[in-house]
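Schema walkthrough. Field components (list of strings):
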Amino acid sequence: MSWLPPLLVALPLLSAAAIAGGQRVTPRPLQDVVAVAAAVAATALSFLLLWQVGAREVVDWFGGWRPRGGVAVGVDFAVGPLAAGMCCAIGLVVALALVYSLAFLPGAGRPFQALLLVTLAAMDGFAMSGDLFNLFVWLELAGTAAYALTGFQVERLGPVQGAVNFAITNSVGGYLLAFGIALLYARTGALNLAAIGRVLAGKPAGGLVVAALTVVLCGFLVKGAVVPFHLWAADAYAVAPAPVCAVFGGVMTDIGLLGVARLYWTSFAGLVHGQTLGEVLLWLGIVSALLGGAMAFLQRHLKRLLAYSVVCHIGIMLAGIGLLEASALAGSELLFLAHALLTAGLFFVTGVLQADHGSVDELRLRGRGGRLLGLAWLGGSLGLTGAPYLGLYLGHGLLDEGASALGRPWAPALLWLGSALSGAALLRAGARIFLGWGAGRDPLLADALEEEPPGRAAGRRLLVTVAAVAVAGGLAISLVPGLGQRAAYAAARFRDRGAYAAAVLRGTPLRAPPRLPVSIEHTTLEGVLSACGATLAAAALALLALGRRRLPQALSTAAARTLGPPVRVLHAAHSGVVGDYVTWVAVGTAVTGAAWSVLLRGG
Amino acid sequence: MSYLPYAVAAWICLVGLAGVATSRNLVHLAVCLTVMQSSTYVLLLSVGYVAGGRAPIFKGAKPGAKAVDPVVQALTLTDVVVSVAVVALILALALDAHRLAGTVDPDGLADVHG
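Field assembly_structure (string):
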């Protein structure tokens, strides 16, 4: 019994209510303090929870409705180290975003802060939930607050379109999820994840179960912005205020992946041929990584560029999950932590550029960035590319080890390419903006967008500080002593279906955890070489994109002729029309379901 | 047991989805979304239905009396609440779209793309 999980949700929700409802009661400075303090307190409680879950699964039954004789009659939070770590990152990013928005959106006021706190509570609730229907409720709560945050500046058309596309595509995903939950309840008579897993274990997947797991997992993949369910992401990120983007890109998109992993390891892993689910997830991840990287490379709008970089890295994390291997899952955890902070940091830098120049267009900003900001951008780009011992490096290393152990070295190679592409996009944008390299026009890139209004940032120093803190924190993830070993332990706990079910349904204590060393995780020589290679490839691609004109005429014409048509197809597919997006969701669900129905029946 | 309620639920879901995908009007689209969501109500209620069962109000009922599943009814209610919030938000955005662009056609809003 622990008070922490319910408190972690109740505290931000109550603070949000107090802020939204305290119109005439609390003066502005007090309201700001309450908002930031609530987020900081939630982060502190998450770290406390992380310490508590070190040796046991912290399970809390709402209203004290504990299971009777191994049958769940209530609704629970069941927290292991992976979920608690996720809560820490969520709290940290939201707290940074709230501090940042004090200076970035001084006029935003009560609803903005209240909505951010609601998303914080909902994401924490989602991460900790042990009940399938509550996963859906938390997801929808986070989603609804997020749609409102996207359309926050409704004085222009862009935010309306972004919010509409975001809200409709994600609602369709949410309803698919709800449909699947009803089917799973029909099949198993349970909503508790551990109980569902117990019923399904050892059975072949019939048509009903295949349909149910397909719509449930695809519902999560829509939220997770995995190709081909990703089309809403760039529209929403392009128009949301920078601190909101930091929360979306840093932590909210990743929530969908947690849903997939949670469902697999608690409920579906025991199915006959259940491991074939991972096969499809792996390929969806690889396609997301490649397409996300390519699309990032074709953007000039910095927020859209970052949105596609998020799609790329989400793909890499999904592949790490889809490999269904302990070390690869640990790699995905570390990727998530570093990616959350680095992406948030880069969105914060973008916000400063917008406040300074009233533009987030790479070409218009050419040669106009400041030195300190440039350093933060460079750090963020290198960290996201996974340069040796920076940012995503350790996560990539563990993922590669996992793939090699399974005899699938080709998977990291494909992910490597996506990561290099998105890294190249970031480095190219940085070199153009902060160093003034390259031309002021580039026909390969997407069209220019409506300009943002110049910001009225009250305290530029605060903005830059928050951005620098986020980037520095993300860069340091690979060097935190003992983190790699703890991520591996968290992954092992997360994957142990039997121990999870016993802890949740019967209160069985876990085996004592091993003593984990506090040292920087060892990485192999191949890891270092692959990281160096990715960084060099990204830098070379960025230089190639900037200096295309200096190439011999014949070479650049040939390149334009081969690259032109596929690039136009890619741009056209991301049409910005919500009907197309929903069609892609339907097609994606159908194809994924078909693949699973073949594989799960013993293909 | 009849398969008809399940077929109806699947049909409503697909029709709603088709409506969302092809709609040219945001208000119409919000209604299609509601239709799609309604499929989950039908599905949930048919999952919990027990032939000859009474409403799950156990006050005054004999222990062991046959009743339909109350869990799915609670889920349906929660589902309705979620859907109302989302539809209200989309309708509010439709109003904004009309104010700013003079149209509620999603194609007419396609300002951001690529």
